Amino acid sequence: MTTSEPASTPAPPAPQRSKGFVIGRVAGAPVIVTRSWFLAAFILTILFVPNVQALAPGLGAGAYLVAFAFVLLLFGSVFLHEAAHALVARARGQNVTELAVTLWGGHTAYTGGLGRPLDGFLVAVVGPLTNLALAAGFWFAYQASPVLNVPTLLLYAGALSNAFVGAFNLLPGLPLDGGQILESIVWAGTGKRTTGTIIAGWVGRVVAVGVLVWALAVPFVQGTTPRLTTVLWSALIGAFLWAGAGAAITNGLRREAIDGLSAAALAGPAVLVPLGSTVAGALSARAAAAGGGVPAHYVVVVGGHDDAPVAVLDGDAVDAVPASARELTQVDAVAVPFVPGSAVHPEMSGTALLTHLAQRSGGARLVPVVDAGRVTGVLDLADVARAVRAT
């Protein structure tokens, strides 16, 4: 079971929802049973039937019903695991987008960006703890049962399966919950979430290999031959974990590259002219600022009181003004106002910069870069988007 947090971008797309059947809502998000779950339910039911027949040989065809009941119990535990993730994520300020029950168990997706290591730790740890609490509850109920019957066997199976799921998810490697816990611990110790992500991703690869090694080594140590089904399942789980760990490492490196993006580095040069200036005067100021370079590279910013940036000259509107009228036309008539509150500081960078642009740009393409009330440049969101895509 995993939690996933999409990366922030200047204009984040709507989260893609898993395909399947919506059976309810938790924390404001849909609970989705994916089509792959039905395949998992069928396979697990078939695999559990021999165990049920061995424990209760008199059931006959009813063994299939009991095996399926165990599968439902198992995935019910998965749902509670994901619901715990969702509820804590929402309590920590995240927007939960879905809870999905899948072939591999389930996942909870949310957006908003984890702001502190404690947030990631709490969202991750509550899932496995839910399973361990369920395991304890099933075990006590099993111990209290006076007779050994089918319901008692289900209690026993519920205790073992939840104990395994809880313990397995605490293994310290992404994409498991234990990996997010490790990420949060490293993040808290180093102050860098990216470092935690990359370390937890590499540990996740070690865990992925360890799953397959365990399936092969334990029978060898015991002097037996590994079961083909055990090896195949371990290989599938290991491949899933390896892929998830690799994706985590890639995301960590991408986040590190994004952290290196700064407003100062991305901003284009600008020249400031006061309100009331003529178009001709603004173009002359731009040419002078270029100093023999290409004036078009400079953006003309219109300043108001105390030279605070209030608008930016619209190139198309300027081109539409006849040359003979530029000495009489004021810049106010060919300028586009900046969105109030959209200005960024030159040192703003990384996810803080992208979050600010996503929340404060108001759909405008250009925002001013301001340091101590002085315009130092203009940021084009198209350039920001290109830089993000290049990471």
UniProtKB/TrEMBL annotation:
It comes from the Bacteria. It is a multi-pass membrane protein. The chain crosses the membrane at residues 26-49, 61-80, 121-142, 154-176, 197-218, 230-249. One of its GO terms (molecular function) is peptidase activity. Its cofactor is Zn(2+). Residues 154-195 form the Peptidase M50 domain. One of its GO terms (biological process) is proteolysis. It is found in: Membrane. InterPro entries: Peptidase_M50 (IPR008915). Keywords: Hydrolase, Membrane, Metal-binding, Metalloprotease, Protease, Transmembrane, Transmembrane helix, Zinc. Belongs to the peptidase M50B family. This is Zn-dependent protease. It comes from Promicromonospora iranensis.
